[in-house]
């Protein structure tokens, strides 16, 4: 399985039937789980096969201490019963609390997409089981070294340069490319959703807002992505959008890695747009044909229009990335989503092959001391101070609007 | 390293990993499920009889009569009927095709490891459809969903959800063949209008490919070569497309196609069914040279097309309805009595769950209260019957 389009320089073909496909069309696997899992003891007081499989999964793991608590889940450290040295994170989703409509959309999305996406830069979902109180438990790979936000913020303790940024951005880019290749939009890319594994690998997590985008004619909600990382088309209320939204978020993460403070930290959606105009340029019909037709587009007075920022402007702020790096950053922050680079184009950019080479993941700076040493302030997530977990409330209220 | 093609991706999907079978493994799984469900019913009925007997203290009660259980085939018919009902209801609610198709697959997947003798499809159906609205991003509030149901409460919809997700083994993604068909349709149209790509192997130019299509034998009059215009070919493709599309919306969902074939195989088979010469032309344009792979593919497409043809019609005939009624009547006698009240089971499980989280003190207190109540009960009604008999 390819983890990046750049490993081979052959273009991935979009042809519907390829040689590789013919092979898998013709060859079917024989390893069907059900067949081999035929029950040895049939009688179990009417326990159905599904119930038994669930029970078996549940019995494989042991919950240890609590690691943390999120908005809709409690996360525990756990291990495989058969291997006490193994470590997993068990995320117990509070299913039956305040949400009356059964399984919540966050939980469904997270489970649905993580079940399908297996990639070194996407958090691995090892198993799912329900405990008898009907809570859903996600057995995730244990990622002990915090998230990218902690590293960015710890400007006293952690030093890094372009080579490290390149390594992190490369891993993020491959994760997002893989999502898009699978027709999945993540829609919440930000530093604190980028966890770090024990070996330094970056792992994209939190698929609670993800969705597939296979049907281009179906409108989608624009109330997604934490504001600081939200692209202009969503701020203008676009209902038809693409992988370009995630690329914008990656661009802002890239900028934040260099600046070591959030690049565009708006207090309100209006303020966010103002910041974008200042830092990137004012979206107008000339540079972004069709933008004025978006529902939330606000006209700009001639005098206030900021021309699209040129390379020099970026070099002044992001000079450490070098001219090639700045070129990549600019392509990710194109205002018109159609002109923005795709995840694939981003990975094909020559920045990755130009000097300096990306730092090997084992040599990447990391939080020392692991979990215990982290202060509470470091655990707090960006953007959380004023509006909770992104626009958590807004996103809940807006599910009805996704139709 | 391999290039990432659509089929490499398919191999990592849960549909491939957990929900793909051979005919043999599929039928053996269904047998196992049927047998263990029957065992469950037997155990539950026996348990019931035993308590009835002890309470009636009737000394000469005959042993539990052997119950006539549903056969795998009967289970299948019943589930199939409720799949059709699900589709009708989804249409009534104006849900998009993917919601409808996913809901039907959820039911089919659920009943691979569960029997209608344990959970009646009538009760699982609304839950499956509601879950599909959520997983397919067509979220409708429970309230408005319930308002569209003839006679069900919000609890009836949500109570089986937990069982359903467990039966689905917590995999919600269903890969449908519809998108593939649309892609193939576009490809064919491009070829028919001379805008296709020239064939890399045979070197046939777009114009030659177009002519080739014009010369294709017609669908009905086999063997008779007719020369037609490019416009007629386009119309032919459109006809085949709508016929294939219809098939994907009905028999592809109702048969075991999703369990046995990949989405690409299914849509190619539907094209095969709709217009075989056109399908063969398309496949030849993709695999110009003979190979074992190609012949295996063609065989798979033929068996899949046969399967698609075999599907029960969406409107059952009188005889089928009669049969369904018979099965449902039979089911009435062999249902697992312990699993009928799904709302009640759901509540009980949640209660149990809450006790998980209670601290020791509360549990202890409750235990004492319960013991006290039991004591009082004993005082009032005398010792429990079992105790007396047990001596
Ligand atoms: N895979 C993991 N490995 C280690 N710790 C984790 C993992 N997932 C989550 N955590 C910890 O649990 C906390 C809560 O996680 P989560 O529910 O995902 O948070 P949120 O709802 O804020 O996104 C996190 O802040 C983190 O400290």
UniProtKB/TrEMBL annotation, chain A:
Residues 29-48, 357-391 are annotated as: Disordered. It catalyses: L-seryl-[protein] + ATP = O-phospho-L-seryl-[protein] + ADP + H(+); L-threonyl-[protein] + ATP = O-phospho-L-threonyl-[protein] + ADP + H(+). Residues 34-48, 357-390 have a biased composition (Basic and acidic residues). ATP binds at residue 92. It comes from the Eukaryota. InterPro entries: CDK, CDK7, Kinase-like_dom_sf, Prot_kinase_dom, Protein_kinase_ATP_BS, Ser/Thr_kinase_AS. PROSITE patterns: PROTEIN_KINASE_ATP, PROTEIN_KINASE_DOM, PROTEIN_KINASE_ST. Residues 61-352 form the Protein kinase domain. Belongs to the protein kinase superfamily. CMGC Ser/Thr protein kinase family. CDC2/CDKX subfamily. This is Protein kinase domain-containing protein. It comes from Stereocaulon virgatum.
UniProtKB/TrEMBL annotation, chain B:
Signal peptide: none annotated. This is RNA polymerase II holoenzyme cyclin-like subunit. SUPFAM superfamilies: Cyclin-like. It holds the Pfam family Cyclin_N. Keywords: Cyclin. Residues 84-166 form the Cyclin-like domain. Belongs to the cyclin family. Cyclin C subfamily. InterPro entries: Cyclin-like_dom, Cyclin-like_sf, Cyclin/Ssn8, Cyclin_C_2, Cyclin_N. The keyword Cell wall biogenesis/degradation does not apply. It comes from Stereocaulon virgatum.
């Amino acid at each position: 399985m390819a983890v990046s389009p750049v490993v081979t320089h052959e273009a991935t073909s979009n042809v519907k039937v390829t040689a590789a496909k013919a092979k898998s069309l013709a060859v079917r696997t024989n390893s069907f789980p059900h067949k081999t899992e035929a029950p040895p003891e049939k009688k179990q007081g009417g326990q159905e096969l599904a119930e038994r499989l669930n029970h078996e999964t549940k019995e494989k793991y042991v919950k240890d201490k609590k690691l943390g608590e999120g908005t809709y889940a409690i996360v525990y450290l756990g291990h495989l019963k058969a291997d006490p040295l193994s470590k997993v994170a068990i995320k117990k989703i509070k299913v039956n609390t305040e949400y009356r409509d059964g399984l919540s959309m966050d939980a469904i999305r997270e489970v649905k997409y993580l079940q399908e996406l297996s990639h070194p830069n996407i958090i691995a979902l090892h198993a799912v089981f329900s405990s008898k109180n009907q809570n859903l438990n996600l057995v995730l790979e244990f990622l002990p070294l915090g998230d990218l936000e902690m590293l960015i913020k710890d400007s006293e303790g952690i030093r890094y340069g372009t080579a490290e940024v390149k390594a992190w951005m490369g891993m993020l880019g491959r994760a997002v490319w893989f999502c898009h290749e699978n027709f999945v939009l993540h829609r919440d890319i930000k530093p604190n959703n980028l966890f770090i594994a024990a070996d330094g690998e970056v792992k994209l997590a939190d698929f609670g807002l993800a969705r597939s985008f296979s049907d281009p004619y179906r409108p989608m909600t624009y109330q997604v992505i934490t504001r600081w990382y939200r692209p202009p088309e969503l701020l203008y209320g676009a209902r038809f959008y693409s992988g370009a939204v995630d690329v914008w978020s990656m661009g802002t993460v890239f900028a934040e890695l260099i600046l070591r403070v959030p690049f565009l930290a708006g207090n309100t959606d209006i303020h966010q747009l103002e910041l974008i105009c200042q830092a990137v340029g004012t979206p107008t019909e000339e540079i972004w044909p069709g933008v004025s037709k978006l529902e939330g587009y606000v006209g700009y007075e001639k005098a206030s229009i900021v021309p699209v920022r040129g390379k020099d402007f970026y070099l002044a702020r992001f000079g450490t990335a070098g001219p090639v790096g700045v070129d990549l950053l600019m392509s990710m922050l194109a205002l018109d989503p159609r002109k923005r680079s795709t995840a694939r184009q981003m990975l094909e950019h020559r920045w990755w092959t130009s000097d300096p080479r990306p730092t090997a993941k084992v040599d990447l700076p990391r939080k020392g001391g692991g979990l215990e040493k982290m202060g509470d302030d470091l655990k707090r997530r960006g953007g959380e101070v004023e509006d909770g977990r992104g626009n958590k409330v807004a996103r809940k209220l807006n599910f009805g609007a996704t139709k | 390293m391999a290039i990432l093609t659509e089929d490499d991706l398919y191999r990592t999907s849960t549909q491939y990993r957990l929900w793909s079978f051979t005919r043999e493994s599929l039928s053996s799984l269904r047998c196992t499920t049927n047998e263990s469900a029957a065992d469950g019913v037997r155990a539950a009925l026996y348990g019931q009889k035993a308590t009835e007997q002890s309470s009636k203290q009737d000394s000469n009660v005959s042993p539990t009569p052997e119950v006539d259980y549903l056969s795998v085939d009967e289970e299948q018919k019943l589930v199939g009927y409720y799949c059709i009902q699900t589709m009708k209801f989804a249409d009534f609610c104006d849900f998009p095709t993917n919601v409808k198709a996913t809901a039907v697959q959820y039911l089919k997947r659920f009943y691979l490891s569960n029997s209608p003798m344990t959970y009646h499809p009538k009760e699982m159906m609304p839950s499956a459809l509601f879950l599909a609205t959520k997983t397919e991003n067509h979220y409708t509030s429970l309230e408005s969903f319930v308002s569209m149901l003839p006679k069900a409460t919000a609890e009836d919809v949500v109570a089986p959800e937990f069982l359903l997700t467990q039966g689905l083994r917590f995999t919600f993604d269903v890969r449908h063949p519809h998108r593939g068909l649309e892609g193939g349709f576009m490809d064919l149209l491009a070829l028919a209008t001379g805008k296709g790509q020239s064939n890399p192997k045979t070197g046939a130019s777009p114009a030659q490919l177009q002519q080739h299509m014009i010369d294709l034998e017609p669908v009905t009059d086999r063997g008779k070569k007719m020369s037609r215009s490019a416009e007629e070919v386009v119309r032919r493709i459109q006809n085949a497309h709508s016929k294939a599309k219809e098939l994907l919306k009905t028999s592809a969902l109702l048969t075991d196609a999703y369990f046995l074939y990949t989405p690409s195989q299914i849509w190619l088979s539907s094209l095969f069914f709709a217009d075989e010469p056109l399908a063969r032309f398309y496949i030849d344009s993709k695999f110009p040279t003979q190979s074992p792979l190609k012949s295996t593919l063609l065989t798979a497409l033929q068996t899949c097309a046969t399967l698609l043809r075999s599907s029960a019609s969406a409107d059952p005939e009188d005889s089928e309805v009669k049969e369904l009624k018979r099965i449902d009547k039979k089911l009435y006698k062999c249902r697992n009595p312990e699993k009928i009240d799904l709302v009640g089971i759901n509540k009980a499980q949640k209660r149990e769950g809450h006790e998980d989280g209670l601290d020791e003190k509360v549990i202890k207190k409750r235990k004492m209260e319960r013991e006290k109540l039991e004591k009082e009960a004993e005082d009032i009604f005398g010792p429990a019957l079992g105790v007396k008999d047990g001596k």
